């Protein structure tokens, strides 16, 4: 069964509405009253090759994707959803809004149990390493690599004081 892409775009919005149905404390930002704090629950990567990128993230994250057709998949992680959406399908809905494989300003960050073990596990899968296991000046231990589309990925463990 093929689900219309337009329906897929509505699903995350409905999920946000349900998750945020309980009111939060009111506060004012720039003089505007607000009742809800925005919650980032979904990051969507636009790609020319959903199948290739999906296979990569299935191995890296060790999560089976939830597929909704050939143009859209989701990886449900402990903190949110990583979605992959086909560039051709995206172009139909918001023409000219995205350019796949061109991001050099965002980092997908995933908290893991052991950075050094993940580095060993991923060494043969990842083709482009940016930085091997390193403890950052702020105490986080990380590895940085690029996915097949060039997106920067950080697997990290927070400092012991914040675990």
Descriptive terms for the model:
2,3-Dihydroxybiphenyl 1,2-Dioxygenase, domain 1, single chain, four-stranded mixed beta sheet, 163 residues, Signal recognition particle alu RNA binding heterodimer, srp9/1, 4 helices, alpha+beta, globular
How do you describe this structure in short?
The chain is of the alpha+beta class.
What does this structure look like?
This protein has 163 residues and is of the alpha+beta class. The protein folds into 2 domains: 1-23 and 39-100, Signal recognition particle alu RNA binding heterodimer, srp9/1 (2-Layer Sandwich), CATH 3.30.720; 103-163, 2,3-Dihydroxybiphenyl 1,2-Dioxygenase, domain 1 (Roll). 26% of the residues lie in helices and 31% in strands. It has a 4-stranded mixed beta sheet with strand order 3-6-5-4, with helices on both faces. A 4-stranded mixed beta sheet has the order 7-10-9-8, covered by helices on one side. A hairpin with a 5-residue loop joins β9 and β10. The model is unreliable at 1-26 (pLDDT under 50).
Topology (elements, then pairings):
Blueprint: H1 5-19, E1 27-29, E2 32-34, E3 42-47, H2 50-61, E4 66-67, E5 72-76, E6 81-86, H3 87-93, E7 107-111, H4 115-122, E8 128-135, E9 141-146, E10 152-157
Parallel strand pairs: 3-6, 7-10
Antiparallel strand pairs: 1-2, 4-5, 5-6, 8-9, 9-10
């Amino acid at each position: 069964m093929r689900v219309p892409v337009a329906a897929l775009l509505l699903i995350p919005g409905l999920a946000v509405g349900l998750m945020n149905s309980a009111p939060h404390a009111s506060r004012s930002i720039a003089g505007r009253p607000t009742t809800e704090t925005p919650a980032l629950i979904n990051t969507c990567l636009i790609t020319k090759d959903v199948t290739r990128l999906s296979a990569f993230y299935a191995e890296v994250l060790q999560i089976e994707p939830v597929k909704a057709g050939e143009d859209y998949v989701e990886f449900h992680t402990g903190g949110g959803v990583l979605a992959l959406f086909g560039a051709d399908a995206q172009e139909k809905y918001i023409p000219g809004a995205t350019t796949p494989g061109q991001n050099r300003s965002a980092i997908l960050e995933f908290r893991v149990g052991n950075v050094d073990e993940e580095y060993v596990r991923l060494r043969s899968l990842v083709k482009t390493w940016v930085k091997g296991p390193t403890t950052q000046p702020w105490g986080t231990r990380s590895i940085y690599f690029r996915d097949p589309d060039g997106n920067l990925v950080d697997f990290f463990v927070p400092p012991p004081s914040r675990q």
